[in-house]
Amino acid sequence: MDKFIISFFLLILISYPSTGQVEGPIRISDNQRYFQNPDGTPFFWMADTAWELFHRTTREEAKYYLETRAMQGFNVVQAVALAELDGLNTPNSYGNTPFLSLNPFEYNEKYWEYIDEIIDLAEEKGIHIALLPTWGDKLFKNTWGEGPEIFNEKNAYQFGNWLGKRLANKKNLIWVIGGDRNPRKDSNDKEIWNLMAKGIKDTAKPDNPILMTFHPQPNWPAGSSTWFHEERWLDFNMQQTGHCPNQPTFRIIEHDYQLLPLKPTLDGEPLYEEHPNCFNAKELGYSNPDDIRRIMYWNVFAGAAGQTYGCHAVWQMFTLERKPINGPLKPWQVSLDLPMANQVKHLKKLMLSQSYFTRIPDFSIVLDQQEDDENFVIATRDLNHTFLMVYFPTGKSVNLDLSSFSEIMQAKWFDPRTGVSFDYSGTPLRNENKRINPPSSGKGNDWVLVVSRQ
Q1: pLDDT tier, 19 (very low <50, low <70, confident <90, very high otherwise)
Q2: Helices marked H in 244-286 — which ranges?
Q3: What are phi and psi of 69, to 5 degrees?
Q4: Mean pLDDT over residues 380-397, rounded?
Q5: pLDDT at position 13 over 50
Q6: Which one, out of 155, 311, 320, 395, has a CA that is 20 to 30 A from the CA of 205?
Q7: Do 55 and 92 meet the contact criterion of CB atoms below 8 Å apart?
Q8: Do 352 and 44 contact (CB within 8 A), yes or no?
Q9: CA-CA-CA-CA torsion for 139, 118, 39, 209, nearest 10 degrees?
Q10: Mean pLDDT across 362-377
Q11: Distance (Å, rounded) from C-alpha 147 to C-alpha 161?
C-alpha cells in the first residue's frame, strides 16, 4: 500500500511554476523587528518543518515536497544536515552517510552534494532553507537521541567553518545553530555552539549576508535569548513552544519582544499538526487545526516576525515502511494536504495586507480582564493608528479601546479558516470604547476584526 501511495504521488507530479523569486538572503528590517527581502519589501516568515528532508527523500520526492509547499504559500523550510534519526550511520536515500571517517572528520562529498542540490532546488521554487548544521544529539543525547556525540570544543569551529565555506554563496539560506538541545548547566555546551556559529560567521561574505539563529528545546519563558541574545552571531531569536495545546505561547514572544538589543523573534517549533498532544495520544488525543491556528495568530499578533508550521508525519518523512516516531497517522505524502497546511497562507496574506514594518502588539486594546487560556483575545496595530487587528480565538465578546483611532473607520471580519473577509455588520465603530461580538463563538470559531481608516 505504501509503495502504491508513493508511486501515485510521483506519477501525478507536475512542474508547478515558481511562486516567488529569491533575490538573496533575507535581512533584518531597519526597526530590528521583522525580516525583509534585499529590495526592502517585507518578508513574512512562513516556514514548514522538514527536519529529515536531506536524509529521507529522493530527488523526485524532494521536488514534489518543495513544489507542494511553495504552492501552499510557505517560503521557508527548516531542515537538518546531520539528521536526528540516526543521521550519521543510516545512509540517505542514495546510500551515502555524511562522513567517511569521524576522527578526524572526513567528509563524504556525495552526501553533501545532495544537500547542495536540494538547497538549489528550493531556491528555484522561491523557498529559503533554514539549515541546522546538526541535530543537537551530536553534541549530547540527553535522555533521547541516536547520537553519537561527536562535537566538542576542538572540532565545532572546524565543522562550522567547512560548512560555511561550502554554502557561503547560497541566496536562500538561513543558519540555525542548535537542534532541540539547550545548553546544560555546568557544561561547555554554550561554548561549543558559539564556536560552531563563529566558524560559520567567519566565512560570511559582505555581499551575501546570511542570518543566523538558534533552535532550542522548550524553555519557558524564553528560548534562544536565554543563552545567546547578546551574542553578535544571533541575528534573531527562535523559540520552541512545544507540542501541548494549552500553553499561552504569546507570552514567550512578548518576553523576547521586550529585550534589548532589539531582535526579531518567532516560534520555530510549535504544536505540529496531527501530533500527539503533549506526547500522550492515549489520554489527550492528537492536535487539531483549531489549536494550531490559535497558536500561530497569537504569536504573530504578539510581535513575532512570522511563524513556523509543522506536521508530525512530514518532519520525519514517515512512510509505512519506516519505524514511526510517536505515532504519525498518515504517510508524509498524504499529510502534505492537511487542513492547516492549506490555511497558513491566509495568515501571511493578512499580515502583508497592511503597513508591515510599523506594526506593533498592543495588549491594552482589550479592556477586559483576561486569563491566559484558549479564549485570550489579542490585538496588534500600526504605530500611527492607521489599522488595528484583533484576534478572537473562540469568538469571545470583549470590550475594545478604540479611542485613539480615526473617528471614521472601516471594519471587516476576516475568517482565518478560509481567508474570506466580509463587512462588519454591527453598530458603526467610532473612536470610543466598544463591545465587540464576533460572528460566532465556541472552540474553532476564531475571527480577526480588521479595522482601518477609510
Answers
A1: low
A2: 250-257, 281-284
A3: -65, -35
A4: 96
A5: no
A6: 155
A7: yes
A8: yes
A9: 30
A10: 97
A11: 21
Please calculate the CA angle 152-157-161 and round it to the nearest 5 degrees: 145
Give exposure, 133-168, as e/b (b: 16+ Cβ within 10 Å).
bbbbbbbbeeeebbbeebbeeebbbebbbbbbeebe
> Using an 8 Å Cβ cutoff, are 70 and 126 in contact?
yes
Q: What are the distances in angstroms from CA 270 to CA 62, 180, 189, 448? A: 23, 12, 24, 21
Among 65, 131, 82, CA closest to 314: 65
Q: What is the pLDDT of residue 6?
A: 45
Report the C-alpha gap between 132 and 118 in whole angstroms: 14
Asked if 36 and 29 count as a contact pair (C-beta separation under 8 A), the reply is: yes
In which band, very low, low, confident or very high, does the pLDDT at 258 lie, cut at 50, 70 and 90? very high
DSSP labels, 328-397: --S-HHHHTT-GGGGTHHHHHHHHTTS--TTEEE-GGGB-S---SSTT--EEEEETTSSEEEEEETT---
Distances (CA, A) of 227 to 42, 131, 181, 182, 197: 28, 20, 12, 9, 13
Given pLDDT bands bounded at 50, 70 and 90, which one contains residue 212? very high
d(CA 378, CA 361): 8
Average of per-residue pLDDT values in the chain: 94
Which amino acid belongs to residue 296? M
Give the N- to C-terminal CA distance of the chain in Å, as an integer: 56
Structural domains present in the chain:
16-351 (3.20.20.80), 362-453 (2.60.40)
pLDDT value for 406 = 79
Amino acid, single-letter form, for residue 68: T
Q: What is the pLDDT of residues 322-358, one digit of tens each?
A: 999 999 999 999 999 999 999 999 999 999 999 999 9
Q: Is the peptide bond preceding residue 104 cis, with omega within 30 degrees of 0?
A: yes
Nearest to 160, CA basis, from 142, 138, 181: 138
Structural contact between residues 290 and 251, judged by C-beta atoms closer than 8 angstroms = no
Is the sign of the CA dihedral 327, 330, 331, 332 positive or negative?
A: negative
Using CA atoms, how far apart are residues 225 and 325, in angstroms rounded to an integer? Answer: 29
State the Cα–Cα distance between residues 390 and 378, nearest whole angstrom: 6
CB 441 within 8 A of CB 395: yes
Residue 372 has pLDDT above 90, yes or no: yes
pTM of the model: 0.94
CA 155 to chain centre: 29
Spatial distance between the Cα atoms of 178 and 185, rounded to a whole number of angstroms: 16
Q: Residue 48's beta-bridge partner residues?
A: 77, 309
Q: 413: which strand partners?
A: 422, 449
Residue in this structure with the C-alpha cell 499578533, named with its chain if needed: 301
Calculate Rg over the CA atoms of the chain.
22
